[in-house]
Specification:
Shape of chain A: globular
Number of helices of chain A: 6
Strand content of chain B: 15-25%
Structural class of chain A: alpha/beta
Helix content of chain B: 25-40%
Strand order of the largest sheet of chain A: 1-2-4-3-5-6-7-8
Strand content of chain A: 15-25%
Largest sheet of chain A: 8 strands, mixed
Oligomer: heterodimer
Largest sheet of chain B: 9 strands, mixed
Number of helices of chain B: 10
Largest interface: A-B, 46 and 45 residues
Distance between the termini of chain B: 34 Å
Radius of gyration of chain B: 18 Å
Helix content of chain A: 25-40%
Structural class of chain B: alpha/beta
Radius of gyration of chain A: 16 Å
Chain lengths: 217, 312
């Protein structure tokens, strides 16, 4: 089932992939992708409900004109989805993993662990700005929005910035391990946070089991 | 062709006059990939173009006192309301890079050549980025209290590291959850002038009343500032102030920087002495004693003369 949530002037497609009791799992897709139509096989053992949201400019969500994308804006998308759930574990792939990290730091009491998995748009634009201005993109009427592809691929992700969100997640969540990394592709920001307290590398299966077993918040 | 230009009919509901203030001679719409930007011009259409850029949470009408002095000296002065500001569209998305792209859309609608630019506050940072990315599009740059600073930038929503704490993040997300249904509070002309006075305590009451008539709309239940309520002062993001300072070091065109010496809510807190190690060889820096963030409004004639001399 899909319903549309409002984030400022955007409509976000929020999908219930599987209902039920137990802990919630929120899936955040990668750059240029969209939410899966069914519960992916690798999360089928999750004991609770499974949800997903299409980021702005992706899937069935609004494709606004004129660009202006940032990872922080997408964190707002994920937070609007979180407002429907109360609390959830986040599984983010690529860009969705980075957004999940931001939300873990910004809403530490609602996010019951973020799992960062491989996917598109993990690296972003590195840790220093270049001499650029995106003058425009080819016109396209369907998602993914070309502005999203260009701007979120250049989105700056300094390691120390990512580390601050880990620290906030540790301080506010009450979890011993608020972040788990399952990704093999590790840009500098991800390498940096893996060295932080509260972050551990594990397989996706182990990570899901760990967060599924957490007591209710 | 993604940039479209359309002549814009503008009506001023209740003009309040102010000595020396003059509304633009022409208005046009410029479309930046679907976001309509309200562009305006003072001076002869055949005169050499001069780009004038406002700061965050502001609008082009705040140049009504300053721009005519430049136009009367022989320049075609071009400005625009940034997305979400003044008469421009309230966009779905806002970002620093989108603002710079919009600036380029307006510039492209005027000329493919290099032009001099005058920029206030956040506009200064935007023009530094544009000059770095497209060095052949800018011939000279004047920045009015908007040169980079190691300190927070209150009118920039996504360039802030100091605000990265649990309380501010939560408040920002709470704001985002309701941003789509927010409306600016209506008030009388005098009430809106008083609200602006809180951010611009050094500007005189008659000027602020004048600004209401050009920067607010008159609804049946009162005046409202046109600024998109989804735009919020402050914020956070990955930007680091020293990146802007490093960018300024590499500027190859002549730079004139004017700095305030009295701190204000909308000011950048840029200290004259902090900037000196980062200035490019072509730079000249002039601090204005006992002056706040809006140097060109407090001292329009003096600033105009300095600028005209610099551009000559």
């Amino acid at each position: 089932m899909t319903v549309f949530l409002t984030h400022n002037k955007m409509k976000l497609a929020f999908h219930t992939l599987r209902g039920g009791e137990g802990p919630n799992l929120l899936l955040l897709h990668g750059l240029g992708e969209r939410s899966p139509k069914a519960v992916p096989a690798d999360v089928s053992n999750w004991p609770g409900a499974v949800f997903a949201v299409d980021f702005t400019g992706h899937g069935e969500s609004t494709m606004p004109g004129g660009g202006g994308y940032t990872a922080e804006l997408l964190m707002g998308d994920a937070d609007v989805a979180m407002s429907m759930l109360g609390s959830a574990t986040i599984l983010g792939r690529g860009l969705g993993g980075y957004v999940g990290l931001l939300l873990a730091g910004a809403r530490p009491r609602s996010v019951r662990g973020t799992i960062i998995a491989d996917g598109h748009g993990m690296a972003g634009g590195g840790d220093r700005p270049g001499p650029t201005v995106v003058r425009g993109v080819p016109e396209r009427e369907t998602t993914p929005d070309p502005f999203a592809l260009v701007e979120l691929a250049a989105d700056l992700r300094p390691p120390e910035y990512a580390e601050q969100f880990v620290a906030l997640a540790c301080a506010g969540s009450g979890l011993e391990r608020p972040i788990t990394v399952c990704a093999k592709a590790q840009p500098d920001w991800l390498k940096a946070i893996i060295r932080q307290p509260g972050v551990k590398e594990a397989s996706l299966e182990d990570a899901l089991s760990y967060y599924a077993a957490l007591p209710k918040s | 062709m993604h940039t479209k230009v359309v002549q814009l009919e503008v009506t001023i509901p209740e003009a309040v006059s102010y000595p020396g203030a003059r509304r633009p001679d022409r208005h046009r719409w410029v479309s930046s990939f679907g976001v309509k930007l309200a562009s305006c011009e003072w001076g002869d259409e055949d005169a050499p173009p001069l780009f004038l850029v406002h700061g965050g949470s502001d609008f082009a009408g705040t140049f009504d006192g300053f721009a005519p002095m430049l136009a009367d000296a022989g320049w075609r002065v071009i400005s625009w309301d940034h997305r979400g500001h003044g008469d421009s569209d309230h966009a779905a998305l806002y970002s620093w890079d989108a603002d710079v792209r919009d600036a380029l859309a307006v510039l492209d609608s005027i000329t493919p050549d290099a032009v001099p630019a005058i920029a206030h506050s956040k506009g200064g940072g935007m023009m530094l980025q544009l000059a770095e990315a497209l060095p052949r599009r800018m011939s000279k740059l004047v920045v009015i209290d908007g040169l980079p600073s190691p300190d927070p930038h209150p009118d920039v929503s996504d360039h802030e590291e100091h605000a990265l704490n649990a309380k501010n993040l939560s408040a920002w997300l709470d704001h985002r959850r309701t941003a789509g249904s927010l409306h600016r509070k209506p008030g009388t002309l005098d009430e809106l002038a008083k609200r602006r006075k809180r951010m611009n305590p050094r500007l005189d009451d008659e000027w602020l009343r004048y600004l209401v008539t050009v920067g607010a709309r008159h609804d049946p239940d009162g005046w409202r500032w046109k600024l998109d309520p989804a735009i919020r002062m402050g914020g956070f993001g990955p930007w680091r102030p020293h990146w802007s300072l490093d960018r300024m070091k590499l500027l190859e065109i002549p730079l004139l920087g004017l700095t305030a010496t009295v701190e204000e809510e909308m000011g950048w807190g840029t200290k004259h002495e902090q900037l000196i190690p980062y200035l490019p060889p072509s730079a000249r820096l002039i601090p204005f004693p006992a002056t706040g963030h809006f140097i060109h409004i407090e001292h329009p004639r003096e600033v105009a003369d300095l600028v005209l001399d610099f551009l000559s």
